[in-house]
Amino acid sequence: MTVMKNLLRVPTVLLLASIGLTGCIGLKPAPMYRLDSGTTEVPERTDGASVLLAPVALADYLQRDALLQRLADGSLAADDQQARWAGSLKGDIEQLLLRQLAWRLDTQSLVLGPAEEGFAAEVQIELSISRLDSGPQYPAVLEAQWRLRDKAGKHLGTRLVRLQEEHQGTATDQVRAQSQLLQRLSEMLAQAIEPTLVAKTAPKPAPAKPPVKSAEAPAPRIPAAEPIRTDMEVFRF
Length: 237
Known about the structure:
Elements: H1 2-26, E1 32-33, E2 51-53, E3 57-58, E4 68-70, E5 76-78, E6 84-85, H2 89-105, E7 110-112, E8 123-135, E9 138-150, E10 155-165, H3 171-201
Parallel strand pairs: 1-6, 2-7, 2-8, 3-8
Antiparallel strand pairs: 4-5, 8-9, 9-10
Helix pairs in contact: 2-3
């Protein structure tokens, strides 16, 4: 009887294995996405301004692989197609910002912090992103804050921003819209940094020279008085 039971189990096991294999073959791979850095050119200047981008502070809910979708009630859920980010979203954002800022500021001396010893940044950027999401019926929204400091750590300026970009609803177009928002953020950052770099690199005005005194005309020469001689004689009687 034991042998018969084992023989009866074999077809069942094979059937389950076959069903499992068929199910695996039928699964579609989850789509994966990366942010688009846009049209940028590698700057040729090697003597450009030195800029330090501190590690970007990303909201906790964005530190995951799933491509989240904003729903009608304001909640967030994973994409129906199980769309995912290809790699780290934080790393993608930092690389996009580096490429955009290097191109816009025309410098290769742009480093992602922490900087190596000996790198003296003229400007330091501290950026935090509290929101970056979208939904099939909702536009892409970016909310962020930046702070700028000089090489001594002195505060140069800060700003809160909220940007919005429409899309066509698909996950692919949502990623495009989010990429556009980060590119616009890079443009705004570059515009805020440029005046500080100009102020630091502008040549100092030369000290004013004392006015040159004009040469005075020589005073007219007065001839010295000379005694007047006369040949007249005085006779007394």
